Amino acid sequence: NISYDGSGSLADIDSTLRGFLRDDVQWWTDKDFGPTNLKSQYTRATFYGGSPLDGFRSFTDRKGEQESKRDEYLRSIYNSFLRYADEKDSSEFPYEHVSFTWYESTLYSHEIVTHLMHDVMFCSGTGAVV
């Protein structure tokens, strides 16, 4: 579950952004972002998972098992965090001013199945009432 529990201190945003600029961190912003303007309408980053997973010799070592563990992890991120990104006024997702988008085939398929199951349950409930 991805959430801030109130313990510890949060990073200073200005210092972090200046550090990104100084260290040439590879992420993307709109054209106006720079040392004198630390605001960006758009920010994009790409994250890659590591391979092999801990306990495996290479990315081909028990490949199916590694893929299963990866998929389980990605579904847990979707279920605990990303699915709330589309819900306005969600108490589970306090970032209304931020848009999260993603593409990953496992997440894409999982999201579609999640929405289809919701629709099936809604239709079943409607049919039971009628």
Description:
The radius of gyration is 20 Å and the shape is flat. It contains 3 helices and 2 strands; from the N terminus they run H-E-E-H-H. The two termini are 38 Å apart. Helix 2 (63-80) crosses helix 3 (105-129). The chain has helices spanning 13-23, 63-80, 105-129, and strands at residues 28-29, 43-44. The longest helix has 25 residues, at 105-129. The protein is mainly alpha-helical and 130 residues long. The model has no long low-confidence stretch (mean pLDDT 77).
Brief characterization of the structure:
Helix content is 42%, strand content 3%.
Could you say which structural class the secondary elements and strand pairing correspond to?
A: mainly alpha
Task: State the low-pLDDT regions, or none.
Answer: none
The profile of the biggest β sheet is: 2 strands, antiparallel
Please estimate the helix content.
Answer: 40-55%
- On the 0-100 scale, what is the average pLDDT? 77
Strand content: under 5%
Count of alpha and pi helical runs? 3
* Cα-to-Cα separation, first versus last residue: 38 Å
Radius of gyration: 20 Å
Number of strand elements: 2
Biggest sheet, spatial arrangement of strands: 1-2
* Shape field: flat
What pattern of helices and strands is seen along the backbone? HEEHH
